[in-house]
Amino acid sequence: MAEEKQFKRLESKTYLSHHQDGLLDVLIGQIMLGLGFGMASGWIGGLAILGFFPIALYVPLKNRITIPRLGYVEFIPKASREALLKIAYPLFFCTCMVIFLLVARVPEGVTPVAPVWTPSEAWPAFRLWLQGKESLLFGLAMFIVFGVVGMATKIRRLFAYALLGLMIMVGGQLFHLRTFIPLFVMAGITYAVGIIMLIQFLRKYPIMSEENLIGDRDNHASS
Amino acid sequence: MPPADPKNKNLQPIADLDRALHAPARLMILAMLHVVENADFTFLMRQTGLTRGNLSTHLSKLEEEGYIDIKKKFVAKKPRTLIRLTDGGRSAIQTYRNYMRQVIDDLLE
Lengths: 223, 109
Fold this sequence. Notes:
The complex is a heterodimer.
Chain A: H1 2-17, H2 23-41, H3 44-70, E1 73-75, H4 79-103, H5 124-131, H6 134-153, H7 156-174, H8 180-204
Helix pairs in contact in A: 2-3, 2-8, 4-6, 6-7, 7-8
Chain B: H1 12-15, H2 24-34, E1 36-40, H3 41-48, H4 52-64, E2 68-75, E3 78-85, H5 87-108
Antiparallel strand pairs in B: 1-3, 2-3
C-alpha cells in the first residue's frame, strides 16, 4: 500500500514536472488577453480567433521547447483526468461566449470592427440584471474552470488562479470597471508568472548536448 | 557474475535476489517506466541523472532480461527511442518488492 502511494507520488511529480515550463500560464494569459481585446473592441470574431489561437500554438511550442529539454513521455491515461481536460476549455470558452453574447455592450467611443450580435430582447429585465453582473459572472466561470483543471491535473497554481481570478473580477465588479480591465490584469499576472517560469525552465534544462552528458553520476553500471 | 554462495544459509535469500533489478540505476529506470506509458531516452536521462553511456548499458541489460521494450521511430524526421515496461517487467517489480519485503522481515525476526 505504501509502495503504491510512493509510485503515485512519483507519477504525480513526473507529470507536474512537465508543466513547470510556464507555457500553460502564458497560454492562459493569452486567452485572457484575447477575451479582453474581444470585449474591448466588441468584435466577436476577434474574440473567437484570439481565444482559440493560443490553443493551436500550445502543442507546437511544447514540442519545440519542452520535449527537447525534458524528453518525451506519454503518461498512463486516466479517464477522469482526460475527461475533465477535454471539457474544461470548451466549457470555459462557451461560458465566456454565452456571457459575452448575453451582456455584450460596445464600450463608449469604440466603433465595432464587425457588427455585434444583438440577442433578442426576449428577457430584457434578465439581460439588464446580467449586464450588471458581467465581471462577477466571468469571475465565477474562471473560478470553476481553473478549479476543474486544477483538480484534473493537480497543478496547484491553477487553484491560485481560480481564487485570484474570482477576486480580481469581484474587485472589478465592486469598482464598476469595464470587464476587460480586470481581464487584462489577470492576463498580465498569468503572463508574468508564465514568462518567469519559462526563463527558469530554460536555464534549468538546457538542450542536451554531448558535453552536458559527460561526468554525471555513475550508478552501478556493472551488471 | 555467478550468484554468491553464503556460508550462513540465512543470507541465501539475499544472494538469490534478481540481479538484473537489484541495482539502483536499473531500479530507478524501472520505477520511472512503471508510472508512465512510455518515455524516450532523454526523459530517462533527465529523470535518473544517468549518463548516456550508463543509461544505454542498463537499458540493454533490462531489454535482454525482457523487462523493457525499446522501439526506435522517426518523429518529424528525427529519431526517437521509445522505451516501455513490458508485462514481464511489471510483474518482476512486483515480485522483487514482495521478495525484498519478505527477506527483510525474515532477517529482522
